[in-house]
Specification:
With 279 residues, the chain is mostly beta strands. The protein contains two helices and 13 strands.
């Protein structure tokens, strides 16, 4: 089997989690320089008579250089689309930790629909790094807010990854995403899109329940504190799934986009038979 790996060019964790005091949100925090990526949902850590139970979420943004993938295809380093069983896989590697680990959950992988910046923040505990140039729960980059808090995503394609024990690595077929990005922006046929990377989050039924007066859309509208209106959400917590990021010291644990194809060279030796003109 032929395999070629491409490593992430940017990644970040964005969250609306409450800070230690439980009175303020970390929705402006940036974690683009951290060596860990984190996905979680926390329901009901705080409550109030006016706002009900709290909803805290964390999501991952990650992007790869699909331009290099396209160049390698043109140079013959990987096969052309449709000529082999070429597939692309998103691989992310579990980071062990001492905190609670969720079990029996799904992560949804979607295509981000807006440009975003990585940032240099490191603080994943107190959410004190407020890099104004980096993406966070409310903004995709400096002075540019997401259309909806928590990131903007295309409805299609999406795919889910299931984790039974919670300790598993992520390895998911993302061929449809990559092929669209290689084609680029082709609005007339809707067959191509600009590459803004992947967004990774718990499925909507597993992200925390929260009722807001703001109407619900596909990306889930948010209130003025960045809490997502989600009437189909869960009233239990999924805390916390961690992956190594692109800046991890463990090189082979860094996220990778992996091209796989059947590179065997075959012949007809299995079809040989004995023949004689005398028979």
């Amino acid at each position: 089997m032929g395999i070629k790996k491409y490593y992430a060019t940017r990644d970040n964790t964005i969250t609306n989690a409450l800070k230690e005091s439980l009175n303020a949100s970390g929705n402006l925090a940036n974690m683009g320089g951290a060596d860990i990526l984190e996905v979680f949902s926390i329901y009901g850590q705080a409550s109030g008579s006016a706002e009900g139970y709290s909803s805290e979420l964390s999501r991952v943004l990650i992007q790869f250089d699909v331009g290099q993938v396209k160049k390698d295809r043109e140079d013959g380093l990987i096969p052309l689309s449709g000529t082999t069983d070429l597939k692309f896989y998103l691989n992310m590697y579990n980071a062990r930790h001492s905190e609670t680990l969720p079990e029996d959950f799904k992560l949804t992988i979607s295509a981000v629909s807006r440009s975003w910046t990585e940032g240099t923040g490191l603080d994943m505990h107190n959410y004190k790094d407020l890099d104004p140039s980096g993406s966070n729960w409310l903004s995709s980059s400096k002075s540019v807010t997401w259309t909806r808090a928590g990131g903007d995503y295309h409805q299609w394609p999406t795919t889910d990854a299931y984790f039974k024990l919670g300790t598993e690595d992520l390895s998911c077929d993302v061929t449809h995403f990559v092929e669209q990005w290689i084609k680029g922006d082709v609005p007339a046929s809707n067959s191509g899109r600009i590459n803004y990377g992947f967004g990774i989050r718990l499925t909507s039924s597993m992200e925390a329940y929260y009722s807001s007066s703001v109407s619900l859309g596909f990306n889930a509208m948010a209130d003025n504190k960045g809490r997502l209106h989600n009437l189909t959400g869960s009233k239990r917590s999924y805390y916390t799934k961690k992956f190594f990021s692109r800046s991890s010291e463990y090189f082979f644990k860094r996220p990778a986009l992996e091209a796989r194809w059947d590179s065997r060279i075959t012949d007809d030796r299995g079809s040989f038979y004995k023949s004689s003109p005398m028979v």
